[in-house]
Amino acid sequence: MQKIFSVGLAQMSSTNRRAENMASAEALIREAAGRGAQMVLTPEMTTLMEWDRTALFDNIYPQDDDPSLPVFQALASELNIWLVIGSMAIKLEDKIANRSYVISPEGNIATHYDKIHMFDVDLPGGESYRESRVYAAGGAAIMATTPWGNMGLSICYDLRFPHLYRMLSLAGACMLTVPAAFTAVTGKAHWHTLLKARAIENGAFIFAPAQTGCHKNARGETRKTYGHSLLVDPWGDIIDDGGVDVGAIVAEIDLALVEKARSRIPSLNNDRAIEISNKV
Fold first, then answer.
1. Which of 28, 169, 246, 250 has its CA 20 to 30 A from that of 12?
2. 50 catalytic, yes or no?
């Protein structure tokens, strides 16, 4: 199994207009591939950034009818890359799946993952999020097999639930994806710290492509995302940071660093199942 390859992260500022987002995503994917990336990842809600429920339902599709997927599949095949679409909104019967796709260089959907943890919160300043009103939570942790090793999938708010990443790492993941649309407030406070922690805890690479900038929904309401797409190595060192501008970052990944980190801090081998007891 190959140990060294190049990864690209596309940092986007998606809008509530699918065609505009598709053009931006394609340009960034092509840029990253042109700079040598063998795997390219896009952020959460790549194709549509819309949180008005009615407008969102009116502009999304079931997986088999979604017009964006065939475009991404053809692009992966043309560029001969592994392509991870951080997430897309996929219509279910009465709710929506926040779904990440892993597409092979043959243009096939290798696997997909539905975001498990829903962001339901009231923030200082009046912002309120209720993902569970619109989205159906996924029920399974998912790992993709690539030529370089196993890759555990997650999306945004999942980052705050370390047991998911430990489960994936214990199952053999050496890479972990965290496509996101972190808010500017929570991103500034926690984004770098949490991503570095997940890398250190599991001795794994973190690939975290992000949304950035100001986004507007159908009612004219705005939200700001934090940006700072990150590549983090298994020791917790930041390989590259995308800052706040739309663009792509590309870096070489040496998976030998996973074994090196895990041999120095063998927390996966030392992990133990513990029962809680109230006995004295």
1. 169
2. no
